[in-house]
């Protein structure tokens, strides 16, 4: 079997045949959302695998991330649920049960790396929305005036300090381990909108969605201390096994239960220029801002076009609650001895996810 046919079969297997196994923000354009990997991250993502910090050159950098990830057709279904036609609105509410969630992320960050250590300051703003459709037969069709469907909108903001270190532990660098400590200051706000207003049914969900996914007050505040760990083991030349563990210190942030989540992956060097990574979460866990369990699985190809240009291509399947969605991502890296510039893009609805990163060696 050729390397090309192995790649095609592996990507199809990972993105379509695996059962859906949440996606964390791909800070510094380094993660599955942009065609890369978390378990085999590039070493510049404070939310990646800390064992990979040893790969990062001595440098400092800046990043920006912005965009949406939502269940398939979530936005158009919300608009259809506001149709004046009772039959169309009822059908849309039934569809909403299979596509109830949406999330919008915006993040900024600065980070420094030296001799396998990382110090990073980041701020993320996360908007999430969960729909709870009322599908009681008496509340559909001619009974829509009594429908109790709701949209639960959350906005969370986190200011985060990451302190991490990773290093090889064996001769030949066949095994590396890493740990990361996160000190986080969270704030949260919530707005719940009902399908029917107090004055009779309105085309309300379509109007409410931009409000819930936009900016609103975050009046609740708390602290979180997180501990992450990771390992990478080279099983044979060009074959690596990796494992990460996030939020090893369980914590409740209001109604969101942050439990440990573990992720495993396998990486194969197909050629001297190309490597394939397959990985997935081993368990589901809730993550801010939504009180819903999340898992993801991804496949990624890293290909060096030249000594100064690298492209990452991949697919990620994300499941929130019972609804999953598959998206493709791509990252282009331009590398010199002094500078790394990366841009990433994930195809999607409404506002596609995008990112840019600049790293400068010191």
Can you characterise this structure?
The protein has 362 residues and is mostly beta strands. It has one domain: Porin. Helices cover 12% and strands 53% of the residues. The strands form 3 sheets. A 14-stranded antiparallel barrel has the order 1-2-3-4-5-8-9-12-13-15-16-17-18-19. The chain has a two-stranded antiparallel sheet with strand order 6-7. It has a two-stranded antiparallel ribbon with strand order 10-11. Helix 2 packs antiparallel against helix 3 and helix 2 packs across helix 4. The N terminus is likely disordered.
Strand sequence of the main sheet, in spatial order? 1-2-3-4-5-8-9-12-13-15-16-17-18-19
Number of helices: 4
Uncertain regions spanning at least 5 consecutive residues: 1-23
Q: What is the distance, rounded to the nearest whole angstrom, between the alpha carbons of the first and last residues? A: 44 Å
Radius of gyration: 21 Å
Largest sheet: 14 strands, antiparallel, barrel
Integer average pLDDT? 87
What is the class in the CATH system? Mainly Beta
- CATH-assigned homologous superfamily: monomeric porin ompg
CATH fold naming: Porin
Number of domains: 1
How many E strands?
Answer: 19
Range of strand content: over 45%
Helix content: 10-25%
CATH architecture: Beta Barrel
Shape, principal axes of CA atoms: elongated
